[in-house]
Design brief:
Elements (H helix, E strand, L loop, with lengths): L1 H15 L20 E2 L6 E5 L2 E2 L6 E9 L8 E5 L27 E4 L7 H4 L1 E9 L6 E6 L6 E5 L4 E2 L6 E7 L6 E7 L6 E9 L5 E8 L21 E7 L7 E10 L4 E3 L3 E4 L10 E6 L20 H10 L6 E5 L10 H9 L1 H4 L4 E4 L2 H4 L19 H6 L12 E5 L2 E5 L11 H11 L8 E6 L9 H6 L7 H11 L4 E4 L5 E8 L2 E2 L6 E3 L5 E6 L17 E5 L3 E7 L4 E8 L5 E8 L2 H5 L14
Parallel strand pairs: 1-9, 3-10, 19-20, 20-21, 23-24, 24-25, 25-29, 28-33
Antiparallel strand pairs: 2-4, 4-7, 5-6, 5-8, 8-9, 11-12, 12-15, 13-14, 13-16, 14-15, 16-17, 16-18, 19-31, 22-23, 26-27, 26-29, 26-30, 31-32, 32-33
Keywords: Glycoprotein, Hydrolase, Secreted, Signal, Zinc
GO molecular function: acid phosphatase activity; metal ion binding
Family: Belongs to the metallophosphoesterase superfamily. Purple acid phosphatase family.
């Protein structure tokens, strides 16, 4: 009877999915969940081991599933559920007219039962190794027959749980609002009425101090629609952010996350370290990695989002392996592709933790974070799956004045970065347009010569097929609104995501190349170089067959870009593939301050006639 009670909530989950509009990235898009029925079979079983994870302090471990059935088929599959046991009675309806069955959670991922045993159909037995991360709750595993189109629930496993599901996890560093401030954001299961969150930190090998952390969380009412409020809802835990201030430039600091329980007990994370940012204008070796549209991918090969981010793990791996040669990372939109399935944010922060715990990880807003009808976004589509920006704004820190207005600036030594929010109006006369002009105009180019514009959608130039089909070769109204700012303030490079490939233009203004050189730029650029770096991991986008004079290099593959500032006069730009981290495109800029001051078309004020 106990097993059957446990099965009922999972069946209710599947039934409740009926009628939910799915997105192309829906994690169960291949499954006709509205056809699911209970078909409990005494001959079927599924067992998970070990039942307790994380006893050694790890928050990411592998488990083994063993299962069998008396009527096997190559269409059988296994779903991963967390929490393991839930009741429809715990779900709050969105309105009082809705009656059970109600959805409480959704499967996190699934895998076919015959994946590791080609003889599964004959023997009826199989096994899987799956990777689990600590997500503040227990897990169970359900065996289905009938394939993805007519799923029949035949067995559910025992529960599996981490030893401390509330542990502080997945630190995310980000630059603060001043150059000498670093923020640390992390996730835990401890509310502030249970424990006091803080960071213990200090110079490596030196005296340590403690800084308190603020705590945020969200509930269903914070979100805008389905699936985030319904099939995709999962408690995101508590998000803590601490501000580490008055850092010395380029100094290495150590830190660890802590929670002081009210009984006096301390809960600690492992020890981490980071290097503080250089002073704005400081001349030192400064290395920046930029990409968009990475998402997450399951290391165990489970089926999530129809394998929508096949390059994600490779990009993550290459950055981790080269992290000693990277100072700061920018992920310019379409971060997780959770699309309303909140469990995926935990999965992503776990995947990138080796990066985010060591260097600042700065994000931009993309359509898959923000867009939702009647929510204030510039585009009325449903790409965020009902998240309407809330998850991105809560899970990661970024130094914006208003977290819903995702535009901000940040300095890193000789670089000034101006980050746009393409999901809000950027056109002339808007609040964002005024911010961008101030960001460009306020930088001292003698001290910070490298002026970089970052945005998710391509506000400049792209040969992506869907832009070419529109005839715009970029976001409609994008460069029409902003190119006079880029030109007036001599923006060096503009980098975008959204189009899942790599492309680089010549220095360009008003659709005309301002230099014929392609790889070694000396002196005044006379225009802005536009780069699409949207090949972080999501499914690739084809190029148009139309040829343009401004496109210098294209690559239909996964990759990321790296910029290295050697000093105030020399910059190296490289495009690396995620498959091998080798350089496939590059250019360098060599110039003096007087080259930045030099007049170009539409970049200089009028001269006085007085002598």
């Amino acid at each position: 009877m106990k097993t059957f009670v446990m099965l009922l909530p999972i069946l209710w989950v599947l039934v409740a999915l009926h009628g939910v509009t799915s997105h192309e990235d829906h994690p169960l898009a291949r499954i006709a969940v509205h056809n699911a029925i209970a078909a409990l079979d005494a001959r079927a079983y599924i067992k998970a081991s070990p039942s307790v994870l994380g006893s050694n302090g790890l928050n990411q471990e592998w488990i083994t599933l063993e299962y069998g059935t008396g009527n096997p088929s190559n269409d059988d599959w296994v779903g991963v559920f967390s929490p393991a046991n839930f009741s429809a009675a715990t779900c709050d309806p969105e309105n009082n007219m809705v009656t059970p069955p109600l959805l409480c959670t959704a499967p996190i991922k699934y895998q076919f039962a015959n994946r590791s045993n080609p003889n599964y159909k004959r023997t009826g037995k199989g096994s899987l190794k799956l990777q689990l991360i600590n997500q503040r709750s227990d897990f169970s595993f359900a065996l289905f027959s009938g394939g993805l189109r007519n799923p029949k629930l035949v067995a559910v496993s025992n529960t599996v749980a981490f030893a401390n599901p509330n542990a502080p996890l997945y630190p995310r560093l980000a630059q603060g609002k001043t150059w000498n401030e670093m923020t640390v954001t992390w996730t835990s299961g401890y509310d502030i009425n249970e424990a006091e969150p803080f960071v213990e930190w200090g110079p490596q090998g030196g005296q340590q101090t403690r800084s308190p952390a603020g705590t945020l969380t969200i509930d269903r009412s914070s979100l805008c629609g389905a699936p985030a409020r319904t099939v995709g809802w999962r408690d995101p835990g508590f998000i803590h952010t601490s501000f580490l201030k008055e850092l010395w430039p380029n100094l290495v600091y150590t830190y660890k996350l802590g929670h002081k329980l009210f009984n006096g007990t301390y809960i600690w994370s492992q020890m981490y370290k980071f290097k503080a940012s250089p002073y704005p204008g400081q001349s030192s070796l400064q290395r920046v990695v930029i990409f968009g549209d990475m998402g997450k991918e399951e290391a165990d090969g489970s089926n999530v989002y129809n394998q929508y981010q096949p390059g994600s793990l490779n990009t993550t791996k290459q950055i981790i392996e080269d992290l000693k040669n990277i100072d700061i990372v920018f992920h310019i939109g379409d971060i997780v592709y959770a699309n309303g399935y909140l469990s995926q944010w935990d999965q992503f922060t776990s995947q990138v933790e080796p990066i985010t715990s060591r260097v600042p990880y700065m994000i931009a807003s993309g359509n898959h974070e923000r867009d939702w009808p009647d929510s204030g976004s510039f585009y009325g589509k449903k790409d965020s799956g009902g998240e309407c920006g809330v998850l991105a704004q809560t899970m990661f820190y970024f130094p914006a004045e208003n977290r819903d207005k995702f535009w901000y600036s940040t300095d890193y030594g000789m670089f000034r970065f101006c980050i746009a929010d393409t999901e809000h109006d950027w056109r002339e006369g808007t609040e964002q347009y005024k911010f961008l002009e101030h960001c460009f105009a306020s930088v001292d180019r003698q001290k910070q010569p490298w002026l970089i514009f970052l945005a998710h959608r391509v506000l400049g130039y792209s040969s992506g097929d869907f832009y070419a089909d529109e005839g715009s070769f970029g976001e409609p109204m994008g460069r029409e609104s902003l190119q006079k700012l880029w030109q007036k303030y001599k923006v060096d490079i503009a980098i975008y995501g959204h189009v899942h490939n790599y492309e680089r233009t010549c220095p360009i203004y008003q659709n005309i190349c301002t230099m014929t050189e392609k790889n070694s730029y000396k002196g005044t650029l006379n225009g802005t170089i536009h780069v699409v770096a949207g090949g972080g991991g999501a499914g690739l986008v084809k190029f148009t067959s139309l040829q343009t004079k401004w496109s210098i290099f294209k690559d239909y593959d996964y990759g990321f870009v790296k910029m290295t500032a050697f000093d105030h006069s020399n910059l190296l730009f490289e495009y690396k593939k995620s498959s091998d981290s080798k350089v496939y495109d590059s250019f360098n800029i060599s110039r003096d301050y007087r080259d930045i001051l030099a007049c170009t078309v539409d970049s200089c004020p009028s001269l006085t006639l007085a002598s």
